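INFO worker-7 received task bundle
INFO bundle size: 2
INFO processing item 0
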Amino acid sequence: SPRKTRYDVKYRLENGDSMVTRSGQYKLYSTNLEVDVVNSPHAFNIIPAELSPAVTVVDASTARVMTAGISSAVRIQAKDKYGNMRTDGGSENFIVIRNETSSPKGLFDFSTKYLIEGKTDAYFKAEKAGMYFVHVKQAGIDLLGSPFYADVLPAIANAAKSYNNSLIPRKGLAGEKLSFSIQAVDEFGNVHFSGGSRFDVVLKGLAYLKTYIGSRLCAEVTDDLSSCVTITDLQTGVYLVEFTPTTAGDYVMEGFLIAADNSREAIGEPGTSSASPWEQCVACVNPYFPERECIKCRTLGVDPTIVDVDASTVLGQSAASFSSGEEEEFLIYARDSY
């Protein structure tokens, strides 16, 4: 019976040339009066043509949102101009670049890794947070799916780069609420605009050379809202620190970033004004050697508040009794309500 013929090729009868546009395995039947001639059918393979960047596809779905300093990959599938997937690769010289006029500045680099069957992963990373307009090209031509936008978010907070973004209180009165704020920043200098980091602040009284513990004295910050130091995550990358010292004296205040493993690192670049413990050195008087130069370094000085009569005391029992007409002396210690 006559053979049912499917024509996958185009013939130019004058010279016998033919062309196919889909790669794969073919059988060529040569017939005369619907009868196969000698050696017909003949099997042969059609391989893809050379790579065409305009048809080659890049899948950037995994790189729409990235983290500063961490590489993300896009998947490239090499194709020829007819859309056939190439099964080889590794020397295509794909490049990943950003649009310099509409992307943040800073380090931006890439690398490629050939996988298998014409698939290549292109890795790229950026250190500055922001929206990037990214091109994946070959021979100067954008691949299909390029360019695309990639939103680079700040990396995790870095202790040395984070800083106080409001003034540290230097003077206060006992019982007065004081505050300042900390700005979270990653290692590349990107300012955080959302919350989630963990900071801690410890207030130490120099007069007692220990951290005050208790409800009246300043305690190390905890989740307990009755503590006199609290830190509030404002969910904007800023952390509000509030404290109410009730004991007059000099204090050193130490700020820390708490890492995922609960380790602590002091806030700020060492040697700068933004570095914990934010100390200032001031002149003082040595009561034992007043003629000697005296310098004391502190973060905060707290003065007593107004005198409270009920809290003030008379020294000793010297005024308990005395003779008529005699002059007597005694000492009154003026104290505030704390």
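INFO item 0 finished
INFO processing item 1
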Amino acid sequence: HFEAYYRNIATSQAKFVCHECENVWTDKDRDKAVQNGNPVMIRGDYTTAESVCVKVDSMVSPLVPLKDLVRTWVSVEHDPELTRKFYVGWLAKVWEQDQIGTKSDELLKLKNGIEEGVVPNKTAFITMTVDVQLDHFFVMLVAHKYGNTQHIMRYGRVETWVDLESILQSKFVGEDGSQHGVTVAAVDAGYRTSEVYEFCAMYSDICIPIKGANTEHAPEWVVRYVENDINGQKVQTGMKRYDLNSAYYKGRAHAKFTRSIMAVEENDLSKNNLLSFHKDTGGMLADQLLSEMYFTKDAPCLWSKKSGWQKKTAHAQNHLFDTFCDALFLARLGNLE
């Protein structure tokens, strides 16, 4: 309600202000100034050119009232894609999104001295999370400590189900020389669903199918039975799929990023609920972990808002972010807190 009121005030009272003399102009003052002014050459020599291109944005166009410009500007300020279109279409400018929040180089401060694939001391269990694509997979191995602290010990892309089996059956050496295996694995069933169910059935002692949905104000997860009997009824003792509230875990992930960076900067790694990376972690992981942003914007109904998580850019890769959020779900399922 406040933002709707703010938009009405902004559009009805908008004025031009000269940044040099601070005089206030109306639309008529703007139009008069444009008519009395002259184009400014920004490139080339128009006196000898065969053709001339004139760049006029909506800010100085007599065809666009300022209130229309401001109304549109205010309405797109929370949406990166609409803001980009506004800058290009209305202001004739190239817009680059400000890097708000955590940046990749800040996140890489979470690297520690542990080698890739090595299990930290005091690890409670290891999880494997898998994001399934059309013809490949993204995998993340996370070591979980009591106090809900995670260490990403390995991540990457693999090509086949056989590759996943190999990882699932592997043993990993701890800092103290002990041997560790994957305790529980979660495989995304959003794609190639029947194949995922078959794989999880083969390793039903440690492997569960999951499915995420960006639905706010929903339970953290809901358990659904996926096997049917001959009558088409769900088998209550059959395979379970965990449907996750992805928005919830994405919020928890970003809170953990911020908390962990602050702990590193304050040199206080004794806290609970932290995150660390192996020593050879690269920018790809950091970029994907930060590939999404939380947005809030008005819905068609005046009294409601639309909010959620979306990619920062149309082609951002978020597979490893999804696998990390799934690992946080497994930590909750394991009651690490």
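INFO item 1 finished
INFO post-check item 1: The two ends are 38 Å apart (CA to CA).
INFO post-check item 1: DSSP finds ten helices and 14 strands in the chain.
INFO worker-7 idle
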